[in-house]
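Hi everyone,

Forwarding the result from last night's run.
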Amino acid sequence: MLKVEHVTKYYGDFKAVDDLSFEVENGEIFGLLGVNGAGKTTTFRMIMGLLDKSSGVITLDGKNIDYSVTDNIGFLTEERSLLTKLTVKEQAIYFGALKSMSNDKILSRLDYLLKKFDIEEYKNRKIKELSKGNQQKVQFIMAILNEPKLLILDEPFSGLDPFNIELFKEEIISLSKKGSIIIFSSHRMDHVELFCKKLVILVNGKTVLDGNIKDIKEKYRKKNILLKGDIDKDKLSKIDGVEKIIEKSDEYEITISSKEVSSKVFEYISKCKNISKFVVEEPSLNEIFISKVGESYEK
């Protein structure tokens, strides 16, 4: 388990991270989100032991993170961090050596991953000769070469097409099933929703929202029902809790006072004819993110 407990980081008088706490279980994929400058990169560097904390505690399986632990950590940065004059093989040998891997283990793992990501022919090519998408594949391979216990992914799908995003997704899920702790950061909320069950949203280094995504969505649930079919608007409007009915080109948008009213509406429309749609709208994580970040800046 990764534990971040009441962590704060100052750069001089500037507070970059403010009393941050969260836990990530083995095999869990956790979302750490925020706009640029929110404190995510500083948090990543503190977790990896690259930056000292001003206060607080960070532990992996109950141990402080130092050089005895870092061999078990993988990190994919948002920026390219490859040595572009090296070949893919040379980069892997260099990186694997830093993680105390044997040459045999490095090369066998590299061959497996190059094949999986369909870039075997680039093994002896210099990184600078590869496309941006293939460089991103190589960077991801370097991050998971050591089969890390803790994997930090910052914008891992940058520059990838939908097919290759699927390949990355499969490997991320595979690592989590094997017990890896994964921290996932992206500005694409739809990507976050693909993986994460829990998250923290940072604004100016401070947590503005955290918890289980399912619970967060329930809390911020929209009070709208989208409906298609033959209904009597007058009868529907008389249901206690129905506040407004907007008739659109081919459907109705019904505003209700609380989610409990949806069952009353459903009971009514179950007696109607030609009902082809009944959807209680769920807010997207993107809408919730924008709402919470906006609230924080308005305070």
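The radius of gyration is 24 Å.

Cheers,
N.
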